[in-house]
Amino acid sequence: MPTAGYSVPMTAPTGAGSASIEQPDYWWYRVRADLLRVALERFVGEPRRLLDVGSADGPSVGWLRGRGKQVSLDIDPRGLTAGGVCGSAMALPFADECFDLVAAFDVVEHCEPEANVLGEIARVLAPGGRMLLSVPAYEWAWTHFDDINGHRRRYTRRRAVRAVQTAGLSVDRATYAFMSVFPIFAVDRLRARTRERVTRSTPTSPDTGVVSLPQVSPTVERVLLCLSRLDRLLLRRRNLPFGSSVVVAASKPGLHDSLGA
Predict the structure, then answer these.
(1) In 13-63, at which residue ranges do the beta strands (DSSP E only) sit?
(2) For residues 61 and 172, which has the higher predicted lDDT (pLDDT)?
(3) pTM metric for this prediction
(4) N or C: which end of the chain has fewer CB within 10 A?
C-alpha cells in the first residue's frame, strides 16, 4: 500500500452503514446529487482519473459517471461496485498525485483526525487537480442521528474552508446547500434534541445495521422536492448564505490545464 513514505494514524469511521445502501432513491439523496451537480460541475473539467471516496453514498456521484476512469473506495464493502477498493479514507491505498479529481461527499465528518483525511486527499491529487467535498452543517443541529451515523463533527462554511486550506488546497467555491428546506430541517432537529432528553432510540435496521431514514409521505416528499428547486436555481448564480450542508470545490496548486480547465 503506497502511502508516500509515511504512516497515517487510522481511526476508522464508526456507526451504522450508510442509509443509501438500502434506500438510494430517498428524496434527500436525489436532491443532493442534483445540487452537487449544479454547484460543482463547472469545476470538474476533463479528469483522466477520478476517485470517489465513500462510494457507499453512491447516489451522490451518478452525475460524475463517464468523466474519465473512475475508482470507488469505501470502508464498507456493501457500498462498492465491481472493481471498487475496500479501504479507509484515512490511508488511501494509492500513490501520490495519481488522481485529477477526488470526490468526498459526506465523508470527512466521519474521520478523526480531520487533518489526516484531507491530507490524504491532497496527497493523491495531481498538481492542478480538484477536490469536491460536502459535509453536514452546524454543530447545534447535532442529534442522536449523527451519533448513529458515526459523525465526528458538523461544519460551518468558514470551518470547512479553513480545514481545506490547512490541507494546502485553494478553495474555488464554498456554499451552503438545502437552504429552501432549511426551516423544516431546523425545526425537526430542535424537536429531536428535545425528544432525546427523554429517550435515546437507535434508528437502525436490526437485520443489516444500516441507518434508518425518517419516512415521509408522498405528499411531503413532493413538497420537499419542489422547494429544493429554488436551491438549484440560486446555486447556478450565487452562493447560499445558510443550509443543512456545506459544499466546497478546491484545487491543488499546479497547472490547471491537467484538467482541461
Answers:
(1) 49-53
(2) 172
(3) 0.85
(4) N
CB 200 within 8 A of CB 146: no
* CA neighbor of 178 nearest in space, from 33, 24, 76, 69: 33
- Hey, what's the cell of 86? 475496500
Q: How far apart are CA 151 and CA 137, in angstroms?
A: 12
Contact 26, 224 (CB under 8 A): no
Q: Please tell me the predicted confidence (pLDDT) of residue 57.
A: 60
* pLDDT tens-digit readout, 123-152: 999 999 999 999 999 999 999 889 988 899
Handedness of CA 88, 70, 25, 176 (dihedral sign): positive
Look-up: residue for cell 443489516?
208
Measure the CA angle with vertex 14, ends 7 and 8; round to 5°.
Answer: 5
Domain 25-255 fold: Rossmann fold (3.40.50)
- Distance between CA atoms of 148 and 202, rounded to whole angstroms? 7
